[in-house]
Amino acid sequence: MSHDISWAELARQARQAAEQAYAPYSKFPVGVAVLASSGRIYTGCNVENASYGGTTCAERNAIAAAVVAGERQFLALMVYTPQTQLTPPCGICRQVIAEFYAPDSPVRSCNHLEQQQEWRLDELLPSAFTPTYLANSSKI
Ligand SMILES: O=c1ccn([C@H]2C[C@H](O)[C@@H](CO)O2)c(=O)[nH]1
Ligand SMILES: [Zn+2]
């Protein structure tokens, strides 16, 4: 539940992760901290590429780091954005978050002004395509 989540700690770790961002092209360093159901926190930053499409976002890198550690469920995700305007995850990341996240779980953004904004995942990605849709499919 939302009130059990240490958002201040997630914000601190997301900001720290943003310091490692590799963003020479966009100059838009992002950090993410994600809280797994184990209680552990994992972080990621954006890693850009000279072939711009090879870029991966901080959100997906944080989730990948958690999955490597054995996590399969997340309770909260904080984005540290280098913007005065608080920014939500991009569309691709919303889909990746939905794979491991309850629809009513919170996603937050924070910035250097210590502002925060919260959305529910199902507000960011209504009618997500989730793993349950793959069950019992029929042949063409
Ligand atoms: O939530 C976001 C939004 C953008 N980016 C990255 C992608 C790209 O490297 C740069 C500009 O879009 O920021 C993220 O990592 N997370
Ligand atoms: Zn993204």
From TrEMBL:
It catalyses: cytidine + H2O + H(+) = uridine + NH4(+); 2'-deoxycytidine + H2O + H(+) = 2'-deoxyuridine + NH4(+). It holds the Pfam family dCMP_cyt_deam_1. CDD domains: cytidine_deaminase (cd01283). Its cofactor is Zn(2+). InterPro entries: APOBEC/CMP_deaminase_Zn-bd, CMP_dCMP_dom, Cyt/Deoxycyt_deaminase, Cyt_deam_tetra, Cytidine_deaminase-like. GO terms for molecular function: cytidine deaminase activity. It is an enzyme of class 3 (hydrolase). The keyword Cell membrane does not apply. It comes from the Bacteria. Keywords: Hydrolase, Metal-binding, Zinc. Residues 5-132 form the CMP/dCMP-type deaminase domain. Its EC number is 3.5.4.5. This enzyme scavenges exogenous and endogenous cytidine and 2'-deoxycytidine for UMP synthesis. Belongs to the cytidine and deoxycytidylate deaminase family. This is Cytidine deaminase. It comes from Rheinheimera marina.
